[in-house]
Amino acid sequence: xxxxxxxxxxxxxxxxxxxxxxxxxxxxxxxxxxxxxxxxxxxxxxxxxxxxxxxxxxxxxxxxxxxxxxxxxxxxxxxxxxxxxxxxxxxxxxxxxxxxxxxxxxxxxxxxxxxxxxxxxxxxxxxxxxxxxxxxxxxxxxxxxxxxxxxxxxxxxxxxxxxxxxxxxxxxxxxxxxxxxxxxxxxxxxxxxxxxxxxxxxxxxxxxxxxxxxxxxxxxxxxxxxxxxxxxxxxxxxxxxxxxxxxxxxxxxxxxxxxxxxxxxxxxxxxxxxxxxxxxxxxxxxxxxxxxxxxxxxxxxxxxxxxxxxxxxxxxxxxxxxxxxxxxxxxxxxxxxxxxxxxxxxxxxxxxxxxxxxxxxxxxxxxxxxxxxxxxxxxxxxxxxxx
Length: 387
What we know:
Layout: H1 3-19, E1 24-28, H2 55-62, E2 75-79, H3 89-98, E3 102-107, H4 114-122, E4 127-131, H5 136-143, H6 148-160, E5 166-172, H7 181-191, E6 195-199, H8 224-240, E7 245-248, E8 274-277, E9 282-284, H9 291-294, E10 297-298, H10 304-310, H11 313-316, H12 332-335, E11 343-344, E12 349-350, E13 356-357, E14 367-368, H13 372-381
Parallel strand pairs: 1-2, 1-8, 2-3, 3-4, 4-5, 5-6, 6-7
Antiparallel strand pairs: 8-9, 9-10, 11-14, 12-13
């Protein structure tokens, strides 16, 4: 990005932050899940200790947002857990549409068959995301369930045939599926997929404390060289063009790869345009953000709209992130400390500098657990001297 474009984008980002128009609301409607994915940031289970949130509770919170303050489009993203485990999902969708709100779901695809597709489309579902984490062996391994690949492929084929549906596939890249990205691309293209979003995995939830004996959790994370290999793959696919748009997620700032691997420069919209209502009523931003430290209130005690307008300061004023490796970083004005989901104070894990982050205790400070820019610079220079 040239200096003029960079300056204009910073002005745009500052204005978006000042206005902080809420247009994207996650609802963690359940923490039940029919799979046991190794990289699950929420550590969801089939028998969750938390009850599904009643739709009436969410709706009461949502209705605090004045109708004339909801931009068009406004989207409610229903996530979990696995949202298709809720039998009332079509009725939920219909009620949201009656309020003039678009809605979508994020699913593992296991329960997404032709009948489910028909019911959700009849409820005017506008968007759908299905996860595919590799070819058959790798996907089933990651998802912890034999047959999950076949179910996901079937769901993808069904969804890709519907032209009205805003549909994409997401893949969490790890050391096992990285060598097979071209094969995954070819298969998705054959199925008619138009949008493929790629993520990496960070050490939170089940990905931090790997449940399988003898398997290192580190195998889920890419080395610096592998991360750059992933960037090069995405950049090459975008340069080649074609019917399927391949992009890297918004999870972090990428330095020299900005605008090569996605359409727009990095911008963490959490708490600026994005909020969430979590399973226990916590009001936060994206669901994989450290809710203990960044929760802004609770729908059972607070007014969602008032919380949005009067709190969320840590998301909108990021100078607090000028600490640790970010303190003197020369790209801080563009990165602002990376994506909010990368700041945690939980667990015995590797920090962004490769050092151990000790087990957090109440009152402990946050630590940046993943820096994408660091990975790229380390690989290019062999050290951090030009940060």
